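#struct-help
A.M.: can someone run this one for me? Single chain, 205 residues.
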Amino acid sequence: MVRRTREEALQTRANILDAAECVFYEKGLATTSMLDIAQHAGLSRGALYWHFKDKAGLVQALLDSLDEPIHRLLAASAELRRANPLECLRSVLVALLQRVAGDARTQRIFEILLHKCELTVESCDLRAQRCARHREAQGKLEDILQEAVTCGQLRRATPVALAACSLIACMDGTISHWLLSPDSYALASEAPRMVAAMMRMLDPR
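D.P.: on it. C-alpha cells below:
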C-alpha cells in the first residue's frame, strides 16, 4: 500500500510538471498562475501546493530534468575526460545540441527559459535560479578547461574563466537562435561543426 501511494505521488508530480510545461509554454512564466497549472493538471490547488510551493519550485524541477542527462553523460565520459578533456567537452556540447534538436520536451523547456521567462523584480527567485545554474555550468566548464591546460591541450595563458563564459554564451545563443527559426538549418547534423567552431575560439593557434 505504501509503495502504491509513493508511485501515485510520483505520477502526480510528473503530471504536474507536464501541465506546468504546457501552460508555461502557452502563456509564459509571468502570466501563468499556480491555479492555471492546477486546472490544467486536473488537480486542486491544495494537491498542487503539496508537491510544489510556488512557480520557482516548478521551474527548478524543469531545470533539473534538463541537467540530469548531461550529468549522466559526464559521468559516463569520465575515462575520456581524464585522457582527453577537450574531446570530452566537445562530445558533451554536441550531445546537448543534438538533444535540443531531437527532443520536443527539451525544446519546450529551453523555449520557456530563453524566450518566455521575464526576469523582473517580482521574479527574483527565477533570476536567482538562472544565475545559480549558470554558475554551476561555469564551474564545470572551468574544471574541464583547467584539466586541458594541465595536460597541454590548451596554453597555460588561456583565460579559463573567460573561455567558460564564452562557451556558455555560444551555446545559449545557438539554442536560442535555432528555436526562433528551427527550419533555418539542421541543428542535429550541423552540431559537430558548430561546436568545433566554438572550440577553436579556446586556442586559436
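A.M.: thanks! The longest helix spans residues 124-150.
D.P.: also worth noting: Residues 55-200 form a domain with the Tetracycline Repressor; domain 2 fold (CATH 1.10.357.10).
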